[in-house]
Amino acid sequence: MSHPLPADEAEALFGRMLDGGMDDQAITRTLVTMTERGETAAEIAGAARAMRARMIRVAAPASAIDVCGTGGDGHHTLNVSTAVAIVIAACGVPVAKHGNRAASSKAGAADTLEALGLDLDAAARTAETTLGTIGIGFLFAAAHHPAMARIMPIRRAIGRRTIFNLLGPLANPADVSRQLIGIARPDYVPIYADALAQLGTAHALIVSGDEGLDELSLAGGNEVATIRGGTVQMSRVEPALATLPTAPVSAIRGGDAAHNAAALSALLAGQAGPYRDAVLLNAAAALIVAEAAPDWQAGAARAAEAIDSGAGRDLLARWIAAAR
For 5-phospho-alpha-D-ribose 1-diphosphate, which residues are the binding ones (predicted)? Predict the structure, then answer.
């Protein structure tokens, strides 16, 4: 595995892993070697195809998008992408939110939504329905990727990042064709974007804060790749594009699920500050991807209106009530 694999060979290899055709030692050796030399776009795309072939799919509106990050950035911030999902759904853009419990942070999307009162088991069962009626659904990764049960103990034993940390956003069970994906490695943005282009996407943004944040950062600059029609275009994005101020990452430091849920509730109630600004910046990106806003400034303004009108808070309440 010291040499890079073509996409079709990578897909076959990861298929064997997921289907139980490789022993633990061989899987460990493969994953560690691949990580140490650096995964290629073809390998990421091939591995993602293997996961997609084995996932449990849900139907979603054709206009549905996903907003999520790869995690693992080590900054332990408040749940930005979860808040963005609620806000843009309140703007009328259906969101198939693919997520899981925390792996390295104190509170993942699932943990925080549960602390807000969302019954995760019910939300998973009703995701297809709530996507169509309310405009949002939570696709609990563990429920839609049963083949990953074979891999999880091996990943825990390895105890470090592997290619599987990159694959979650590329295997959304709703087969969304529009995405905002944050990754924690700015240098990997073009490689990851190339992988998504190979997988086919209508419109996507891959973003990474300069400090290794797996979302658009207020702290300064961001590496951004725009994928559309199989082409990738790199750019730099700063908060000023959305008429937003800068703020250090420490200003949106999170805590446990209860802490993050309280912050998200306050945000939806209209509380100003860096958390709101971070959500507005990322929501603007998501609305651009959904073609629901023409530019960063208009996107941030539309997201702010969804918060200040109470639409975001109302949507969350309806979602919690529906997932029973």
Answer: 69, 72-73, 77, 79-82, 97-105, 109
